[in-house]
TrEMBL record:
This is Putative eka-like protein. It comes from the Eukaryota. Residues 64-103 are annotated as: Disordered.
Length: 103
């Protein structure tokens, strides 16, 4: 087993499948003072968490492709479009929280 300091695998929650640690306050599937979420709520939370995790993976892959294209930009004067990651993740979390609150 390798150490956590050098782990290159993306962080994934064991409760909801989102891009955060299991003990994070962001996790909608963690137990609260009111108790644990119901099975129906967990199903929806896990779907949303998985969508959020996949979005983060796609964003990281796009960043890597952009950095590779920047290395080849000596030949081409065009610059790749820069995406603001904070706005993408924030909207995803807000949508997820909104879905969970409707239950």
């Amino acid at each position: 087993m390798h150490s956590e300091d050098f782990c290159m695998a993306p962080t994934k929650c064991r409760n909801c499948g989102g891009p955060h640690r299991s003990d994070s306050r962001k996790c909608l599937a963690r137990a609260t003072r009111n108790g644990a979420p119901t099975k129906e709520q967990l199903k929806i939370i896990r779907l949303a968490g998985d969508r959020e995790f996949q979005a983060v993976l796609r964003a990281k892959a796009a960043e890597e492709r952009a950095s590779v294209l920047e290395g080849n930009s000596d030949e081409e004067p065009s610059q790749p479009e820069v995406v603001d990651m904070e706005n993408i993740q924030a909207s995803s979390v807000e949508d997820t929280a909104g879905d969970a609150m409707r239950l």
